[in-house]
Amino acid sequence: MHDITNLAADEQVFTSNVFLVDGKRTVLVDPGDEFDVVSKIEARRGDIDAVVLTHTHHDHVGNTEAVTERFDVDVWGFDPDHELVDHEIEDDTTVALGDREYRVLHTPGHKNDHLCFLREDGGDLIAGDLVFANGGFGRTDLDEGDHPRLIESIERVLDATDDSLRAFYAGHGPVVDREPRQHIQLALRSARMS
């Protein structure tokens, strides 16, 4: 793993994981909700260059305005029509997070604007709410949820990865850094059976 820190790791509120990716372009992936992420950024890094969203469910974006006001940064996401998104990230392009380039994978099913980010060398995946540890997968009973599309999105991520995947960073729960691809395969099997 490289310089990815979960700023919400010790929080006891309803929030997503909040990943600070340090490097030449320090990026906050999903600002989270219901805690003071600004002070955590200031304590850890002092400043950021951008905010990137995996998707726009409130637990992932509730702190966005506080972050953009304090650090005067733009927000990047899939849906340019969403009120929080300043710049569109298109499917199958690349985006700089920290010191690395990541391939953008549009992965709807949990939400229409859902994105995953796969490091170009295949080493890390920022998975949002697509898949979780131990075969968990994103809910599809919320607005814009679509179970067949979620299965297709998990299949797409599996096709894009191989055994060089060292870790995936889910939107909730722990970082999966032991046999991460097997957890994604298990998520696909679980999603197909439900």
Automatic annotation (TrEMBL):
SUPFAM superfamilies: Metallo-hydrolase/oxidoreductase. Pfam families: Lactamase_B (PF00753). Its cofactor is Zn(2+). The keyword rRNA-binding does not apply. InterPro entries: MBL_Glyoxalase_II, Metallo-B-lactamas, RibonucZ/Hydroxyglut_hydro. The keyword Zinc applies. This is MBL fold metallo-hydrolase. It comes from the Archaea. Residues 15-172 form the Metallo-beta-lactamase domain. Keywords: Hydrolase, Metal-binding, Zinc. Gene3D superfamilies: Ribonuclease Z/Hydroxyacylglutathione hydrolase-like. GO terms for molecular function: hydrolase activity; metal ion binding.
